[in-house]
Design goal:
The chain has seven helices and ten strands. The protein is α/β, with parallel strands linked by helices and about 230 residues long. It binds adenosine-5'-triphosphate and magnesium ion.
C-alpha cells in the first residue's frame, strides 16, 4: 500500500536545521497493523504526518498505491487523503459545540454523501464503537475513553483504507486504552491497514509488526510470530 525510499524531513527554524527523518525506507502492505515506537523526539509523529500527507518530505520518494505523492499539489493531496485515510490523534480534537453524532457526521460532510446516508453511516459506526447511546451528548459530557471512541468513530465513518493513529491511547487509563486497542485490532481483522505510534510495549503487541526508531532512523523491525 505504501512504499517510502530514502525519505527525509529536515525542519528549518532560525538557522537551526533539525533532521527529523533521515533517509527512511519503509513498506507497509495492505492489511498490515504496524506499531511505531521510539523515544520522544525520534521522529514518530513526523513520519506519521508524512504517511498521512499532512506534511511534505524534504527528499526521497513516497508511493501510495503506486502513485508518487511527493510531487502532488495541495488539491490532489487532499483528494488522496479524503479517499483513503482516517486519523486518530492523541488529543481527540472533537468539537464541543456539536453533539457526538454531529462530530462523527462532520467527517462525511466533504464527501458528497447525502444527509440521510450520513446519518445512517454515523449511526452504524457509533454502534460499532459502542457510543450510540451517547449520540446526543456533547463531547465534554463524556469520559476520556468515550471521547476517544467518538474520535475512532469519526476516523472510521468514511471507511478509510489506512488508519493512522498517533498515541491513540495516550490520554486514556489502562482499561480504556485496552478497549481502544481491541477496537483497532478488530478493525484490522476486518481489513483496515493501521499504522500506530505508541509508547506502550503492551499496546505494540497488538500490532503484527513493530518498527523501532531512533534519531530519525529506523533501527529495527520486528514481525510478530503469527
Ligand atoms: N515544526 C517543527 N519545527 C522544527 N523542528 C521540529 C518541528 N516538529 C518536530 N521537530 C523536531 O523533529 C524531531 C522529531 O519530532 P517528532 O514530533 O516527530 O517526534 P516524536 O518521535 O513524535 O516525539 P514524541 O514521542 O515526543 O511525540 C524533534 O527533534 C523535534 O524537535
Ligand atoms: Mg509525537
Amino acid at each position: 500500500m505504501l512504499q517510502m525510499r530514502q525519505l527525509s524531513r529536515v525542519y528549518q527554524a532560525d538557522m537551526i536545521e533539525t533532521t527529523a527523518l533521515d533517509a527512511i525506507d519503509l513498506d507497509v502492505a495492505a492489511g498490515e497493523f504496524v506499531a511505531i515506537m521510539g523515544p520522544s523526539g525520534c521522529g514518530k509523529s513526523t513520519l506519521l504526518n508524512l504517511i498521512g500527507m499532512l506534511d511534505r518530505p524534504s527528499g526521497g520518494s513516497y508511493l501510495f498505491d503506486g502513485q508518487e505523492v511527493a510531487g502532488l499539489g495541495e488539491a490532489a493531496l487532499a483528494a488522496v487523503r479524503k479517499a483513503n485515510l482516517g486519523f486518530i490523534f492523541q488529543s481527540f480534537n472533537l468539537i464541543d459545540e456539536l453533539t457526538v453524532r454531529e462530530n462523527v457526521e462532520l467527517a462525511l460532510l466533504y464527501h458528497d454523501v447525502p444527509a440521510s446516508e450520513r446519518r445512517r453511516r454515523a449511526e452504524q459506526v457509533m454502534d460499532r464503537v459502542g457510543i450510540a447511546h451517547r449520540a446526543r451528548h456533547r463531547p465534554s459530557q463524556l469520559s476520556g475513553g468515550q471521547q476517544q471512541r467518538v474520535a475512532v468513530a469519526r476516523a472510521l465513518v468514511a471507511e478509510p483504507k489506512l488508519i493512522l493513529a498517533d498515541e491513540p491511547t495516550g490520554n486514556l487509563d489502562t482499561s480504556h486504552g485496552e478497549e481502544v486497542m481491541r477496537m483497532l485490532q478488530s478493525l484490522n481483522a476486518q481489513g483496515a491497514t493501521i499504522v500506530m505510534v505508541t509508547h506502550s510495549p503492551a499496546h505494540a503487541d497488538y500490532a503484527g509488526r513493530v518498527v523501532n526508531m531512533l534519531d530519525g532512523r529506523i533501527l529495527q523491525q520486528r514481525r510478530r510470530a503469527a
